[in-house]
Amino acid sequence: ECVSSQLFTIVTSEIARIEKVEVQFIDGTKTITIFANGSGTYEYALDTEEGPFQESNVFENLSTSPQVAYVRDKNGCGISKRTVDRDLTRDDFPNFFTPNGDGVNDFWQYVPPEENFEQSLKIISIFDKYGSLLVQIDPKSSGWNGVFNGNALPSSDYWFRALYLDEREIKGHFTLKR
To answer: DSSP readout, the chain?
Structure first.
């Protein structure tokens, strides 16, 4: 009869779930913090799946260009990926809205892309055809309802300027239809 025993350790591990990517702009530089959950031990990289990876989930003194975050399980269970931010395009803003109270297109607001990313917009300003500022809206609000000083504005073209946290901007126009 041969008796033997072996001691071993079971380590649970899984691919990370990127819950949130926080972007901060301080004194003209960008800092990214990646928040990941899971039962693994993780390391972090930006821009390329090949790394270099680091232990810290904080990246400082970055350029303002859009980035991709990667979280790798140290035990080989895989790599998670998430777009941090990207440049908005004119297509991210509606061409028109119809604030008539029917519950459809009653507010004008930028349309967040379907990708899972953190957008770094600060404020959106809306102007009339003469360049007069009508309203400034928070990108996380429901948007603008076509009212200025308590009065419904007429059907017309209006202009907007969306300002990023790092002061870049995108401009365009849209139509208010009544």
So the answer is: ----------------EEEEEEEEEETTEEEEEEEEESSS-EEEEES-TT---BS-SEEEEE-SS--EEEEEETTSS-EEEEE------GGGS-SEE--SSSSSS-SB-----SSS----EEEEEEE-TT--EEEEE-TTS--B-SEETTEEPPSEEEEEEEEETTS-EEEEEEEE--
User: What is the per-residue pLDDT across 44-100, written as a single tens digit (0 to 9) for each?
Assistant: 999 999 999 999 999 999 877 778 999 999 999 999 999 887 667 788 899 999 999
| Rg (the chain; Cα; Å) | 23
92, 111 Cβ separation under 8 angstroms: yes
